[in-house]
Design a protein that fits this description.
Blueprint (H helix, E strand, L loop, with lengths): L9 E4 L3 H10 L5 E3 L6 H6 L2 H19 L4 E11 L2 E3 L5 H11 L3 E12 L2 E13 L4 H9 L20 E5 L2 H5 L3 H9 L11
Parallel strand pairs: 1-2, 1-3
Antiparallel strand pairs: 3-4, 3-5, 5-6, 6-7
Length: about 200
Amino acid sequence: MASLDRYKSLVLASASPRRAALLRQVTAIPFCIIKVDVDEDIFFEKLPPQEAVVKASAEKAIFAAELFPSSLIIAADTVILCEGAVMRKPSDISEAREMLIRLRNRVHSVLTGLSVIGRRGISSDIVATEVEMRSFSDTELDLYLASGEPFDKAGAYAIQGRGALLVKRVCGCYYNIVGLPLARLEEMLLENEVTLLKNDL
């Protein structure tokens, strides 16, 4: 197994604190975090959701690779798909309410496009997790909205937070719902001769 010191650095091309926390949870390898300037909405206007989420992650990775040449790049993009409707982050409380009402008592898919740029060039994949929401009450909905938690989350809920109280069942990768499918990420990094199980560079 090759060491990461053959790369200049490990870069997470995401401003999401949840993705950074997940990465820190599974590795002691230091990594840089950058916010990428990519308009993901363009891809969702032109492509099916499954293609758009992968394209968004790939463009984020490419943007980061231009800033950090010879580095190992990780990028991801996550959306909710419910009965054909794509849900990203709500713009306000009204939109968050609409999203949660649509998700209530229904099954939806969490789609994450995952891209890695390393010695093998760019590789991308999509991970899907099925989530079934409870038939939560309007009172619960109001209380959840009042918590402020939904407003920077795709689909307006955080399963790693209070949003867990709204979820009845999960089928697939839990970490994908949070925003970074860790097992699939490790597999993609192994293809580039790196493992997150290392303790240092």
